[in-house]
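A quick aside before the break. I want you to see a complete sequence-to-structure record at least once, exactly as it would be stored in a machine-readable document. Don't worry about memorizing anything.
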Amino acid sequence: MSVSRTWTPSEPYDLARSLCVLQRGPGDPAFRVGGDGAFWRASRTPEGPGTIRLARCGDAIEAHAWGPGAPWLLDGLPALLGAEDDPSGFTPRHRLVHEAHRRNPGLRLIRTGLVLESLIPSILEQKVTSDEAYRAWRLLLQRHGEPAPGPAERMRVMPDPRTWSLIPSWEWHKAGVDSKRSATILRAVRVARRLEEATAMDLAAASARLQLIPGIGPWTAAETLQRSNGTPDAITVGDLHLPRIVGYALTGQRGTDDAAMLELLAPYAGQRHRAARLIMLSGRTPPRRAPRFAVRDFRAM
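That is the input. The structure line, written in tokens, reads:
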């Protein structure tokens, strides 16, 4: 049996662009886009597993939820959809950013209120290709997650901290996860409760809390807090592609590093993550000069 809630945004709202950051690859067992355009998420909430279905109904967003975590998911529905995000203070400083902002008036920065849910896949994405990370997340949830409540077949809720801690080394290996990343996840789940407290902190304190865990640096902290806290200034540093994209989009030059990217984004202080999202949506990226990195098979090592 489901429970439901409806939320009506007061301004233009783009459900797909706002929620897409939660999907970890096209085969994510915890996220699905239905044939009818509805979005499904399976989450492990403080109240237990829950599944939520989100779909447009006229000007409103209609949500149905199942499982022990359903009330928690519906209580957090406005925040999840970006109701707490205030883009009114954002002022484009570049023509490209202005145009992307104009073309995407409904973009909102979502807030899940769940740290571990975004932290673990972010750890899996450290120093590997997206395809490798997505495959690892998919296999680990299929093998060690539990069926999502409700009618969504083949969706999975990620394991609880204890289950993560009991995954044997060979299962990590089968999923293509090296010992460094698996050890970081194991350290994180041992202090899961303390990490979840970061959702009530400002950016500096939340980032510092996450980085107390060896193996979690600024890149992983930013990627997590962008989703769990909806922080508009949580700019990702240490990324292979983002500085180059930002630099090329704003200057036409190649080879931009983190320091140069931060200098370019300085006019957007307090809103640097939003600016980066809009730059990515502009579609202006440097032409590829080299082939994609090959996907490594850790199982053969």
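Two observations worth writing down. Strands lie at 3-7, 31-33, 39-45, 48-57, 60-66, 146-147, 156-157. Residues 12 and 105 are 6 Å apart (CA to CA). We'll return to this after the break.
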